[in-house]
Write a structure and sequence with these properties.
This protein is of the alpha/beta class. Helix content is about 50%, strand content about 15%. It is built from 19 helices and 13 strands. It has a 6-stranded parallel β-sheet with strand order 3-2-1-4-5-6, sandwiched between helices. Strands 7, 8, 9 and 10 form a 4-stranded antiparallel β-sheet that branches. α5 runs parallel beside α6, α5 crosses α15 and α15 runs antiparallel to α16.
Length: about 425
């Protein structure tokens, strides 16, 4: 039975994805190897997974180690879910990703996908991911790599140009948004039939159906009339009004992907957007550790508290189960385009439906996107391409150019301002970005 390695198990994906694996009866043997550089947090996750395995009656071996290479030997599947330098969304270096662009009026909302912060995150992450891939080529050359690390598009693009391993990018934005749409429509998620495609965090729902019924007209009407929906989706609703189709991922994310929503105080007010974010530079893993140290979690780890064994909507365990069992499943995958969406470049990374069976994942031909949707995607594909070139060439100039090409940055900054911001951001993290010359 399979050996699955989760690198960055302390991130939250370690416990969540392990329960997802154990929820499949056919995956309750073999091994789950948990890897994290923080031994204490990794041990908490291992205790949680062992408790879950006991509740499922699973014979799976649960291993915990800080030695990545030890865990990778003989792996069948490797899940990556790590961040370089500190917490993914607190402390440093994330502080620099947000606060330095703030100084120049580039007010990012998340800064993990695109924009100056997303590009910096990619450039400090890819050297480590490349080393991991070299380790896998040596220690588990037949393994499938399931990546959850952001920025998904750039990392998956660079990885596909770095390794011959099977590498896929996974996200929950498509299925998560589809679940929200089904709830608004007052129907079970299983009843909703949808087709979505684009790039990660900017895939478009092109069809919404129940049987032969086109649900888009009803969805548009409810999306405009529901006060609660409008409060959460004001930006995405306006995107749908303007460009005809509803995008995946949240309005909070989407606001930073375009030149329209956060370029001025007037725009922030009009779109009910939040003020510039403030990040505590000294924050660490306190909140995550507090969760593990809580009375509720300690009771679960000791075997006394009730543990939640429900599976999440993530696709990793689905892929593992279908590959091992041959049971056919459908997922959404971030993969090299190769003509899947003909009006996006063939070498970029697209998010499209895929079927999974004994042969692993097979991305499906989707067809052309509506031209306006493809154009919005293409703006970010261009940024991703230059950022990937910056990593491959170790080029500081290309990194700066990628940041200058970002749509929000271009809407706010002059070229001189954008260049100054990029230089300051790259200089803020010499231990991670000093390789750029």
């Amino acid at each position: 039975m399979p050996k699955t390695v989760i690198i960055g198990a302390g991130s939250g994906f370690g416990s969540r994805l392990s329960v997802d694996i154990l929820a499949h009866e056919g995956l309750r043997s073999g091994a789950i190897a948990l890897v994290d550089i923080d031994k204490r947090r990794n041990d908490w996750v291992a205790a949680y997974v062992k408790r879950a395995a006991k509740e499922f009656g699973a014979a799976v071996e649960v291993l915990a180690t800080t030695d990545r290479r030890e865990a990778l030997r003989g792996a069948d599947f490797v899940v990556t879910s790590f961040h370089i330098g500190g917490p993914a969304y607190a402390g440093k270096p994330y502080f620099y990703d947000v606060e330095i662009p703030n100084k120049y009026g580039v007010y990012q909302t998340v800064a993990d996908t695109i924009g100056p912060g997303g590009i910096a995150r990619f450039l400090r992450t890819m050297p480590t991911l490349a080393q991991m891939l070299r380790d896998m080529e040596e220690l588990c050359p037949n393994a499938c790599v399931l990546n959850y690390v952001n920025p998904m598009g750039m990392l998956t693009w660079a990885a596909n140009e770095t390794t011959s391993l099977r590498f896929i990018g996974l996200c929950h934005s498509v299925q998560g948004t589809a679940e929200d749409i089904a709830e608004l429509l007052g129907m079970r998620y299983e009843e909703l039939r949808y087709r979505a495609a684009g790039i990660n965090h900017m895939a478009w729902f092109l069809d919404l159906r129940r049987g032969d019924e086109d649900l888009y007209p009803r969805f548009r009407q409810l999306a405009e009339s529901s006060k609660e929906w409008l409060e959460r989706n004001y930006v995405r609703n306006d995107i749908m009004r303007s460009f005809d189709y509803f995008p995946c991922e949240s309005s909070r994310h989407h606001a930073e992907y375009y030149p329209y929503f956060r370029k001025s105080q007037k725009a922030l007010d009009h779109y009910r957007e939040s003020a510039p974010r403030t990040i505590d530079p000294n924050a660490g893993y306190e909140r995550r550790d507090a969760r593990w140290q809580s009375e509720e979690m300690q009771a679960i780890l000791s075997g006394e508290g009730e543990i939640d064994l429900s599976a999440s909507n993530e696709f990793a365990a689905t892929i593992i189960n279908s590959t091992v069992s041959g049971e056919v499943s459908s997922i959404y995958a971030n993969v090299k385009n190769r003509g899947l969406i003909p009006n996006l470049p063939p070498d970029c990374i697209v998010e499209v439906p895929a079927l999974v069976d004994h042969n692993g994942w097979q991305p499906c031909y989707f067809g052309e996107l509506p031209p306006q949707c493809a154009a919005l995607n293409a703006a970010h594909v261009s940024v991703q391409r230059v950022a990937v070139q910056a990593w491959k060439e170790r080029s500081r100039d290309k990194a700066i150019q990628a940041m200058m090409l970002d749509p929000l940055t271009a809407a706010v900054c002059t070229l001189d301002e954008a260049r100054a911001m990029a230089n300051e951001l790259l200089d803020s993290q010499p231990e991670h970005l000093g390789y750029l010359k």
